[in-house]
């Protein structure tokens, strides 16, 4: 099922929704807390963690509506994972929260390496950070589901990140083809119904029946993250020039996911206003 009953694990997740807490993983980890302004004007705290041993970076923050967003970049496997823990609408029959996971390939120069992230410090922790570059919105059609029990081949982070999402774990067709070419077992993936196969599918925001299948959309934005390293030039006493790392460039980037759901009840945020 897309939404599971409340369990001990669920209680832990609910606690995180109420108070943003990021536990430092075992390994060579480093944590940085940064205050950023969201697109709605609210200020939130991002928690960025680098784990040099696992060669990964995580970023986590809470949106103004209480949704907890977590992003993980797995450099060992070139995989990125987005997770959204969305507070449910109890008066409309939903559980206390709904979890979504979106998985895709991690491209070069999307974010700085984990060893560089681990060395980052800030002089003024109370400052509200604004990204130097606002990158364009990326549209992603998530046409396949990922089997959680077999996802270890893609990334060791998926199980911990997406356990609460269960069947709501999505990826793109292009990424599936890439991973299959690399030898990943095809049984990990399940192709979802496509609009070309079922022309009657509507966008969830225009579907009136809560129990009808439809195409859901979900958007999120990483408001501040270190996307590139900056290099400066210097000269020694002989006049010989050299370059050295002298800072980072910060970016903001939005993501818009489209995916199939078997009932609109699982996509209540995507409604006409």
UniProtKB/TrEMBL annotation:
<dbReference type="Pfam" id="PF14941">
    <property type="entry name" value="OAF_N"/>
</dbReference>
<dbReference type="InterPro" id="IPR026315">
    <property type="entry name" value="Oaf"/>
</dbReference>
<protein>
    <recommendedName>
        <fullName>Out at first protein homolog</fullName>
    </recommendedName>
</protein>
<dbReference type="InterPro" id="IPR053894">
    <property type="entry name" value="OAF_N"/>
</dbReference>
<feature type="domain" description="Out at first C-terminal">
    <location>
        <begin position="203"/>
        <end position="271"/>
    </location>
</feature>
<dbReference type="Pfam" id="PF22873">
    <property type="entry name" value="OAF_C"/>
</dbReference>
<dbReference type="InterPro" id="IPR053897">
    <property type="entry name" value="Oaf_C"/>
</dbReference>
<feature type="domain" description="Out at first protein BRICHOS-like">
    <location>
        <begin position="30"/>
        <end position="179"/>
    </location>
</feature>
<comment type="similarity">
    <text>Belongs to the OAF family.</text>
</comment>
């Amino acid at each position: 099922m897309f939404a599971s009953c409340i369990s001990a694990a669920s209680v832990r997740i609910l606690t995180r929704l109420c108070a943003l807490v990021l536990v430092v993983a075992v390994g060579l980890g480093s944590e940085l807390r940064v205050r950023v302004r969201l697109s709605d004007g609210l200020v939130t705290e991002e928690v960025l963690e680098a784990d040099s041993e696992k060669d990964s970076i995580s970023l986590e923050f809470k949106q103004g509506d209480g949704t907890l967003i977590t992003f993980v970049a797995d450099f060992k496997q070139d995989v990125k994972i987005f997770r959204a823990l969305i507070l449910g609408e109890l008066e409309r029959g939903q559980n206390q929260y709904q979890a979504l996971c979106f998985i895709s390939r991690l491209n070069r120069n999307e974010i700085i390496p984990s060893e560089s992230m681990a060395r980052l410090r800030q002089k003024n922790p109370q400052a509200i950070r604004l990204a130097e570059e606002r990158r364009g919105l990326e549209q992603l059609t998530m046409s396949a589901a990922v089997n959680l029990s077999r996802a270890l081949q893609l990334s060791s982070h998926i199980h911990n990140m997406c356990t609460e999402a269960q069947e709501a774990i999505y990826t793109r067709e292009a990424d599936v083809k890439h991973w299959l070419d690399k030898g990943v077992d095809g049984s990990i993936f399940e192709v979802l119904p496509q609009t070309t196969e079922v022309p009657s599918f509507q966008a969830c925001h225009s579907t009136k029946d809560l129990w009808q299948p439809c195409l859901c959309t979900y958007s999120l934005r990483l408001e501040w993250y270190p996307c590139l390293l900056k290099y400066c030039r210097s000269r020694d006493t002989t006049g010989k020039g050299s370059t050295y790392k002298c800072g980072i460039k910060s970016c903001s980037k939005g993501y818009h996911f489209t995916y199939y759901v078997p009932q609109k009840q699982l996509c209540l945020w995507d409604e006409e206003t």
